[in-house]
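User: I'll paste a sequence; please echo it back and then give the predicted structure.

Assistant: Echoing your sequence first, then the prediction.
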Amino acid sequence: MQIPHFEALQPVCPVCKTANGQLHPLVIAQVAKQEGPHIVEAVLHCTNAACKREYPVIDGVPLIISDIRRYLSENAFQIALRDDLSEVMESILGDCIGPGAIFDIVRQHLSSYAWDHYGDLDPMEDPIDPEPGAMTRVLHTALDSIADDPEGPLIDLGCSVGRSSFDLADRCGQMVLGVDLNFPMLRMASQLLRTGIVRYPRRRVGVVYDRREFSAEMPSAKMVDFWACDALALPFADGSFAGAVSMNMLDCVASPVDFLVALARSLCERAFAIVACPYDWSNAATPMEHWLGGHSQRGPDDGASDSVLRHLLDPSSVHAIDGLHLLHEMEVDWQVRVHARSTMSYKSHLVIAGT
């Protein structure tokens, strides 16, 4: 956690904000480990005497989440997972634990996302693999259509392993906060922020992974930070951000409508929102009754997800999200690497909205 970000963004207790709308700021109560401007291990406290919630900072990532006990309980393995084992030891663990276990799932997620985010910077990138960098390409395509430069901090919702946050800071010259709930990916982004090194397991086949480790210079690293926050309950005052980015996250939250409402509330006047989504709906992430389309094909939208999103961003619609209106939209290609011989291809619906 970068101290300048904490001081500038002034996070508030999400429990107090959700319960009664009161904005009680968090303070740094105890620091156990610090590296220059980066707080690596610490405890944050709510200043409300009736609350006094504690939020830990672990591996440079502050966990500012309402139900922090549940989050830590459900993610204990990922948080406690060691990252100092040799490639040989990780390989033995992978063989013994086997496919489908949490250890394997974490490695697969890091493999797919880190390849897309940083594969273009890898000097040892395999030329037979498809070209990485879909996220960067789509983000810059969206930013090209925004007329005015933002003036104020930006938030990257669902930042994953962080390249979108770095690129956003490079392009816009503003403070950027990347938020996500996936701790292993946030930890990787935070380590890159502090060390300038990309380090991740890249899946070759089955449970066979090759370690990738290389330097990656991020010119705007001082302007970026990564926090664990719930995008549906952001710990900030309304109107805190001049722009928001959400890349392929809308179909991964419990309620897409609530997510868009929270996104709109986080933005100030004349801000922008970039949302990309392939509408790859799954009950495991989003209950079907909350999907935007993807069902009820006998209705007026014929089950189309993009049509439902247009209605939500149309101020004249009875279902419009207050404060957001559609500016531009387009279809974009997106590739996700599964392993050396498998890549999934998506068509993402990219929309740019304004406040």
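The chain has two domains: 3-74, 80-354. The mean pLDDT is 95.
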